[in-house]
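Hey all, sorry for the wall of text incoming. These are the two entities for the joint prediction.
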Amino acid sequence: MSDAWLDEVCWDEQGLVPAIAQDIHTGRIMMFAWMNRESLKLTVEEQRAIYWSRSRKRLWRKGEESGHIQRLHELRLDCDGDVVLLMIEQLGGIACHTGRESCFFRKLDQDGEWQVTDEVLKSPDAIYAGKVSHE
Amino acid sequence: MSDAWLDEVCWDEQGLVPAIAQDIHTGRIMMFAWMNRESLKLTVEEQRAIYWSRSRKRLWRKGEESGHIQRLHELRLDCDGDVVLLMIEQLGGIACHTGRESCFFRKLDQDGEWQVTDEVLKSPDAIYAGKVSHE
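and here's what came out:
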């Protein structure tokens, strides 16, 4: 496989592209993060989600500390070429660093309050036990 | 409803937040766009997706030209508060300006080629007939 497909991605001025991770089994949106060219290339090579951490300015192999790896099943590109969609299998069933299935665990109710709709499946302390920092 | 919920959104340095639109019936990711504070407020007030067009630097009432309005069913916020997810009903069944159901109509195949997986349901000429410009 050549790298030509990477040239069809429209990287932003920081060399990044937004990445949406969707659970292939449930259809749920698990998280949203960013990728640079290297991380997207590695994501396909290793068949697991590898993001670019903007805060830590380094590659972020999702699950590297938590074990909550995202196995890649399908990679999609949008019409403008500037957003990628990853259909993934979420190992451990937890994508969020708070210990919830999805990062999108708050829903706006009719009173204009963000309500938490998801329970914590595993405490962050347990997820990141013995690790220097969480994801 | 007060506007306090808007203060819990972490806007980026341009005052924007990424917005993912997911079809509430099929679970398919239809498109990705950006919102500013005004557009997100209006999205909730009018119960339809209203984005901020970065290229045109104005509010973009999705469907204003095409008729392909996105009715809001649910609004979600992620753990960091910097991405919103809209569960929507896609009027006309077409979200993409190319006339396809979803903007994510290209899939990377095993040979490293982006393959178009979705058919054009309605030609852009027909969608935007008589309009100055398409979305």
